[in-house]
Amino acid sequence: MHRRREYPEYPFVGVGALIHKGGKILLIKRRFEPNKGRWSLPGGLVERGEKVEEAALREVKEELGIGVTLERLIDIANEIIPDGKGRVKYHYVLIDFLARPKVGRIRLNKESSSYRWFEPETIEKLNTSRNTRAIVRKYSRERRGFKP
Fold this sequence. Notes:
Blueprint: E1 12-21, E2 24-30, E3 39-40, E4 43-45, H1 52-64, E5 68-82, E6 88-101, E7 112-118, H2 130-145
């Protein structure tokens, strides 16, 4: 049975990967709702019978054509998007991992219109979801707190 994403009966579980390399993070521009046209962490929905780590690896491979190494869980968050009448139009529980890219050339699938590596400090000025900004802020705070 296929569950509808708009006005769902229950929340969907999604995974994302904050992919970092050389102090920069990789974001994709979403082609479809929710968050159409916004910069976002690559990721997607967990499939039945799939572990969240497996889902994150699969989603990155599908969206970017590259493998990543998951380093650790970075955050668990809610993304609840109401419609103009205050009803819940989208509801996701998001599990985000910190990841490093493996060797490979990025090849976007149809879900994204572009990708780019960003300095974490520039994310605040981008059109992103609240969750993407929160995850990048957390990553930046943790990075500043570590001594090289």
